[in-house]
């Protein structure tokens, strides 16, 4: 299995991308934006995104970008447009929606976001979530995914299709 870290401004000012690549990571995913509303009403842009993309590229890693969703602050289309704007200057190889909080059936929100990103970038957008949240909060009921298997949790894998639509096969 190929591995890679996800990063944001939470990791501090610098990531040693050459060390990441030397550790046999093939990719990295950097937060570009989120649906968090700032005091002036604008949506958040991660200040480390550009620098992280430059470092990942220089280290020869496959680059990814993610948007951390806040489904209660604004609609999916607005957040997707914001994500496309935030990634316009440093386009990643792959795009992801990071969905880790919310309640109810979030599948329509996620599909609207992912569809809008594909319209805006020409590339399909994957879903990035924690297994606990995804398997307990909304994916099983909407997509008919099993939540357990003998011996532990059911892994969620990129690629393939479900009743929620097609998900892109990741390059790793």
Written description of the protein model:
It contains six helices and ten strands; from the N terminus they run βαββαβαβαβααββββ. With 172 residues, the protein is of the alpha/beta class. It has a single domain (6-166), classed as Alpha-Beta Barrel (TIM Barrel). The strands form three sheets. Strands 1, 2, 3, 4, 5 and 6 form a six-stranded mixed sheet that branches. Strands 7-8 form a two-stranded antiparallel sheet. Helix 1 (17-22) links the parallel strand 1 and strand 2. The longest helix has 15 residues, at 107-121.
Question: How do you describe this structure in short?
Answer:
The chain has 172 residues and is α/β, with parallel strands linked by helices.
Looking at this protein, list some descriptive labels.
172 residues; alpha/beta; TIM Barrel; six-stranded mixed β-sheet; two-stranded antiparallel ribbon; 6 helices; 32% helix; globular
